[in-house]
Amino acid sequence: MTTTEIAVSSIGALALDPTQTEWTEPQTAALAQLGIADAPAGDQLVFLHQAQRTGLDPFAKQLYMIKRWDSQSGGYKYTIQAGIDGLRVIAERTGRYEGRTPIQWCGEDGVWRNVWLDRSRAPVAARCAVYKRGFREPLEGVAHWAEFVQTRKGGDPTPMWATKGAHMLGKVAEALALRAAFPQDLSGIYTPEETAAEDDAAAASGGPGQTIAEAVAEEYSRPSGEQMVTPEQLSEIAGRIRDLGMGKDAALEVYAEAAGRQVPTTRLLTAAEAEAVIEELARRAAPPEPEEAPEEPVDAEIVDDAPADDPWAERAEAAQ
Question: Where is the composition biased (Acidic residues) (predicted)?
């Protein structure tokens, strides 16, 4: 089956038709649930095109369009991403994918190893090669740590790259190899590991892998009957936290100050509280107001204000 045939075989109101030129009404409603219904028309059409071309189902979370705050442009940008599993699926559907080589890592010595055991330092590079039917040699992808490591504003690696750096770099190398082998099917589709954008709001206040105690705390601190934070607000908070270089504790203090209660994660903010958080972050990012200029000196005339019967004044005049 071709990629197009796989897309057609889907059933239901959200099924993608390879001949459709815009999102249908049910699909648009589903996009709203994904938080991207307000994306520019051009971005939405590109997303539709990529979903049709790759055969990945965005409503099954195989393909994503991520909205993030871009501090340089002062606005939001949308990028299309797929997990490494999605890239493997696309490659296998071509009928020409014949597996890959084991991922290898090397240090500054340039020696390639099948496993990275040095926990004190990150590998310098990782490589992976993909076998494609009809090609004499495997197509290789090499990922350099310095080019792909994702860092915070201060330059330190983000939590995932700090704790699982070899694994993350290996996925980048595999993605590069898959894209080199299947450019027609994978061009323009990148994995999160290949992009430098991270949801700093989630990183600053928790996320996947939380403890049971944290999950219970979230459940009991969730307001009821109020509109919760929107994806747009989450994205803007993430961008502003990143720009300020704010850590977890500092971010939690801002949430508590703006909400008037302890908020363990941004996802538990109400929409109104999120607006208060955004306003507070914007205030902190604004340049300080200039100090008031000192008052100009006032010309004054020295006068003799000693009382007429002051004996000291009389003595001073007599001494002259």
Answer: 289-308
